[in-house]
Amino acid sequence: MNKMKLKSMLEAFYQEDLGDGDLSSEILFRNGDEGSFSFHMKENGIFCGRDVVEIGFTLFSPSVKVQMCVEDGEWVKEGKKVAEIKGPMGDLLQAERVVLNLIQRMSGIATETYRAVEQVKGSGVRLCDTRKTTPGLRMLEKYSVRSGGGFNHRNGLYDAVMLKDNHISFAGSITEALKQVKSQIGHMVKVEVEIETKDQLLEAIDGGADVIMFDNCTPDTIREWLSLVPSHIVTEASGGITRESLRAYAETGVHYISLGYLTHSVKSIDISARVRIAKGV
């Protein structure tokens, strides 16, 4: 994870939350009031967000001390302490909610990914995310997928070419779209083509696609069409794949399955903050 980028993100989040200042803490606490937080899992799951905790709290004061009790990607049982943070009470309270919101979401994504990976174990398929992420949180959400044992699809529109139906319609055909793209991109950039019919599949193969995505195809259809795909082309299944149908898709022999639900509809893990305050003199 890019820690410099994370720091900038956290600063922006704090600006949103703090505005001109923390009215509650500024009134109640003096400079010498010290205290501590401990974060505890309120349900079983994969923890994710160590950097968020460590950077998030120390942004407020160099005197804040963070002790992590678990690692990212670790399965943690309900009730277990995941972190202890000590320092000026006002600083801790100003940082707490932003940090907690982020690590709850990140841990939820990591946990959902872990459960999906367990569901397809032994099939050889790799599970990956999509661009269906929360605006502003993509780096954190994709890191959470990796922490849960999954893989990342392209990070954005900038690091790979993906020709979808609208691109193909504008170009006139898969062949023409591939021709135009491959004549201008660098040799390090992969080109993926989204297909829904057998004719589109054959056209993508002939046009030199690096990756072929079977979009909204049934497991039986994918299994049948895979026999037509040369071994050097990577294959992916996507579109409408649920927890219930995941195993059936994994057993088709496709290389990757991309799952939007890992990030767009995941439930956050419940993590609580327990506070201890030591009054200054």
Overall description:
- By secondary structure, the chain is an alpha/beta fold.
- The chain has 2 domains: 3-116 and 267-278, Aldehyde Oxidoreductase, domain 3 (Alpha-Beta Complex); 122-264, Aldolase class I (TIM Barrel, Alpha-Beta Barrel), CATH 3.20.20.
- It is built from 11 helices and 12 strands.
- Strands 6-11-10-9-8-7 form a 6-stranded parallel sheet. It has a 4-stranded antiparallel sheet with strand order 3-5-1-12, with helices on one face. Strands 2-4 form a two-stranded antiparallel sheet.
- Helix 9 (219-226) links the parallel strand 9 (211-215) and strand 10.
- Helix 4 (89-119) crosses helix 5.
- The longest helix is centred in the middle third of the chain and has 31 residues, at 89-119.
- It is elongated and about 70 Å long.
- The mean pLDDT is 94.
Distance N terminus to C terminus? 41 Å
The helix-strand sequence is HHEEHEEEHEHEHHEHEHEHEHE
Per the CATH scheme, the topology name of the largest domain is TIM Barrel
CATH architecture of the largest domain: Alpha-Beta Barrel
Number of helices: 11
> Which structural class do the helices and strands define?
alpha/beta
Q: How many separate domains?
A: 2
> Any low-confidence stretches, pLDDT <50, length ≥5?
none
Strand share of the residues? 15-25%
How confident is the prediction overall: mean pLDDT? 94
**Largest sheet, described in full?**
6 strands, parallel
* Helix coverage percent: 40-55%
CATH class of the largest domain: Alpha Beta
Strand order of the largest sheet: 6-11-10-9-8-7
Question: For the CA atoms, what is the radius of gyration?
Answer: 23 Å
Query: What is the assigned CATH homologous superfamily of the largest domain?
Result: Aldolase class I
